[in-house]
Structure formats: structure tokens, C-alpha cells
Amino acid sequence: MMDRQQVLDVLQTVQDPFLHKNLAETKALKQLSADGERVALEVALSKQDKVKQMQIQVEISSKLKEKGAKAVSVQFTVLRNEEIRQLGGFPVKLPTLLSPGVKTQFISVASGKGGVGKSTVSVNLALGMARQGKKVGLLDADIYGFSVPDMMGIEKRPAIKDERIIPVERFGIKVISMGFFVENNSPVIWRGPMLGKMLNNFFNDVYWGDLDYLLLDLPPGTGDVAMDIHFKLPHSKEIIVTTPHPTAAFVAARAGAMATHTKHEILGVIENMAYYKSKKTGEIEYVFGKGGGDKLSDLLKTDLLGRIPLTQPEPKPGILAPGVYFEGDPIAPVYDDIARKVINKTTK
Ligand SMILES: Nc1ncnc2c1ncn2[C@@H]1O[C@H](COP(=O)(O)OP(=O)(O)OP(=O)(O)O)[C@@H](O)[C@H]1O
User: Fold this and answer.
1) Which domain holds residue 238?
2) Atom of ligand 1 nearest to the CA of 309
3) Atom of ligand 1 nearest to the CA of 273
4) Is 96 contained in some domain?
5) CATH number of the domain that residue 8 is part of
6) Model ipTM over 0.85
7) Mind listing the pLDDT tens digit for each residue in 257-293?
8) Residue 291 and residue 167: Cα distance in Å, rounded?
9) Both 165 and 80 in a single domain?
10) Residue 268 marked as a ligand binder
11) What is the rounded distance in angstroms from the CA atom of residue 83 to the CA atom of residue 51?
């Protein structure tokens, strides 16, 4: 039976192809199990490179077999940034969402004023798109009024791995919120440059991985943060949320005007709290007025993507996520329909 020392002796003769040190020196052996003549090991290299991994796998495997092993399995992992630095190497910076060649599409969800349901729409649109098979991230950039963690019932906080922030995953959506970085729900009073820095961090220091879409829940109105995002993300597309009152549409039009100014394509308008349908009689009441969505989409020369009625989400037993319309909720198909439209409009 192979022992650890025999394996280390072999690793001493195999080089990490990037650090030019042998795998015993780099402390590459992360796991080892030997069962009779079968050996399974996990080896950490300084970079992930499929071709080099295959070469090393063949090298280790044949050398261990020369020493008597019958079957060898080699799994690969990557050394921690700290380990790489200690060994004199330079850790590879993983790509960010702003790196060249990254295909993620940005969609900002904006509104003219607060309280129209922009966060509710962002969360449920993200879920709707995920139900259509898309890989979706959600950035709660509503720096003063973050509400996504509460709406989705997120209690976990992001982990830090290799100096990158790992988003919290909830219902298949990768989420980052300003709320994760604020103690005891205290109000955020940062301004100007601090805020810009925070947003940069959200793009550069968060490891979002491979995403089809990143939805951005913007702060209401046309303030600093909204402006900043508009300029920072030249390719972002926009969805504008309004309530059905015609005057609300005028207010929302300002957010639309800013998108036009920064040459962001407006994908469409969503009218939230459009009507109330009585569960008992089926009668429809236009509690907050009528026509705002149509008016705004005409004004912005775009489509009305959908009308969402006034309804509280149906709670799902055992899951606390008060802002989520889960599959099976009568409102979920409305979001699915909007999600499909958004995907069609952004798929060439
Ligand atoms: N269609 C709806 N039916 C019933 N309640 C809704 C609907 N949409 C949103 N709400 C409720 O309205 C309130 C405001 O919604 P939300 O926080 O999504 O708005 P917002 O525009 O993001 O607000 P802010 O910009 O102030 O953060 C929340 O309590 C939310 O649960």
C-alpha cells in the first residue's frame, strides 16, 4: 500500500508549470487517500489550465504506477492567492463582469420615485428569468434603501474567498446588496466619491462567475448613484417601473430621459400595482388610477412589458421570503411572461 511519503517523493519530481517549483515544495498535495493499490489525490496548482493539468495527471499517474500503484485518480484545485504569493508567484485575477470578453448583459431597473415596487420587480424578474433557464445575478444598488435581502429572506452574508466577495445565492440568484455591508441596518450616509468606490467594488471585487444577466436595482430617481451607474455601464439596458397613475408616468419619464441621455436602450416599461382583482368576486378595481404604463411607454417610444396587479405574495410554507412570488403563485406567470419578453429583446 502506498504511503504519504511515497506520494510526496513522486510529487517532488513533478513541477508546478507556472511557479517552476516542485509540487512537494508548493505543498500541492491537498488530499490523499490510499486503499490497497488504489491512490486518489487532490493536487493544487497555481493556475487552472486544462492542458497542463492533463500533462501533470499523466506524469503523476505513471510515476505512481512505477512505484506499485494499480489505479490512480488525480483531481485538481488551485492554490490560495496567499500561498501563491508566498511561493513568489502572482495570483491570477479572475475576470470581473467588466473584463473584456465577458458576455453578461446588464439590465438596470429604474423608477422615477420610491415605493413603486422597483425592488419587488427586480427580485421577481430575476426569478422569472432564472425559471427560463438563465443564470442571473441581482445587484441591490439601492444604496440608501436596500430591501432585497429582506424581500428574499437572506440571512447569510457573502463569503470572502481569495480576496473576492462571493455573492449569496438564494433561489438560484446570485445576490449582492449594500445591506450586506451595513451594520445593524444603519442608514448609509456616504456621498459622492465613497459611493462611486462602493459601486466599483461591487463590480471589481465581487466574483459573480458566469452570468447571462445582472439585474441592477437602482435607487429611485435620478440622483448620484443612478447617474454613476448610467455612466459606468455604457451597455446597460433599462427597464422603467411605474405605477398606473398618469402623473406617476411623468415622474418616471425623468428616469427614462436619463437613460436616453446616456444612450441606454430602454427595454420597456412595467406597470406595477396596476389593479386589484377581488379574490371573491373577480371584480377589478383600479386603485391607483389607470393608463400610466401606456402613457410612459408611448412617451419613451418603448413597449409596455407587463402589468402587475396589487397582490401580496402567497407565503410558501417553511420559507421566509416575503417579497417573492414563487412558482404556483397566480402572479408568477405574469413575471414569467415579462421575463420571456426581456430575454427575447436581449437575444440577438
Ligand atoms: N404589486 C404589488 N402588490 C402589492 N404590494 C406590492 C406590489 N409591489 C410592491 N409592493 C409593496 O410595496 C412596497 C414598496 O415596494 P418596493 O420596496 O419594491 O418599492 P421600491 O420602488 O423599490 O421602493 P424604494 O425605491 O423606496 O426602495 C413593499 O412593501 C412591497 O412589498
Assistant:
1) 105-346
2) 1
3) 1
4) no
5) 3.30.300.130
6) yes
7) 888 877 889 999 999 999 999 989 989 999 999 999 9
8) 38
9) no
10) no
11) 22
